[in-house]
């Protein structure tokens, strides 16, 4: 499966610590969202905004166990983020792909 990331999860060292590897990736854009800093945590989160877009990475070949680790890192149970499916546009091929993305609740 694929996941679109736009903050801490774009950093290879963070991915290596969480997943034990750095998945292959490609640059991509998420349309209809804006990247904002959460003043309470200092981390970015995506909020819906009809005219904005977020640049980030499309991580490829994510396994279910890895997705669970990423969910834990993003503290889905804590309620700050939710994981949704969204269309992203890859920059290399300019094609749309569906990917998981963590957005603000």
Defining traits:
2 helices; Hypothetical upf0131 protein ytfp; 105 residues; five-stranded mixed β-barrel; alpha+beta
Topology:
Elements: E1 3-5, H1 12-19, E2 25-37, E3 44-59, H2 64-73, E4 81-90, E5 96-104
Parallel strand pairs: 1-5
Antiparallel strand pairs: 1-3, 2-3, 2-4, 4-5
Calculate Rg over CA atoms.
13 Å
Total strands: the figure is 5
Tell me the strand percentage band.
over 45%
CATH architecture: Roll
Along the chain, the helix and strand elements come as EHEEHEE
Biggest sheet strand order reads 1-3-2-4-5
Briefly characterize the structure.
The protein has 105 residues and is of the alpha+beta class. Helices cover 17% and strands 49% of the residues. The protein has a five-stranded mixed barrel with strand order 1-3-2-4-5.
Report what the structure shows.
- The chain has 105 residues and is an alpha+beta fold.
- It has a single domain (3-104), classed as Hypothetical upf0131 protein ytfp (Roll).
- It has two helices and five strands.
- The chain has helices at residues 12-19, 64-73, and strands at 3-5, 25-37, 44-59, 81-90, 96-104.
- Strands 1-3-2-4-5 form a five-stranded mixed barrel.
- β2 and β3 form a beta hairpin.
- It is globular and about 35 Å long.
- The protein starts with a strand and ends with a strand.
């Amino acid at each position: 499966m694929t996941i679109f990331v736009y903050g801490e999860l774009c950093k290879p060292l963070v991915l290596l610590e969480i997943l034990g590897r750095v998945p292959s990736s490609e640059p991509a854009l998420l349309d209809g969202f804006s990247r904002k800093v959460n003043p309470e945590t200092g981390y970015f989160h995506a909020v819906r905004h009809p005219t904005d877009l977020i640049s980030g990475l499309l991580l490829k070949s994510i396994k279910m166990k890895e997705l669970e680790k990423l969910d834990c890192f993003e503290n889905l149970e804590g309620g700050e983020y939710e994981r949704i499916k969204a269309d992203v546009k890859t920059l290399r091929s300019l094609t749309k792909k569906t990917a998981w993305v963590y957005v603000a609740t």
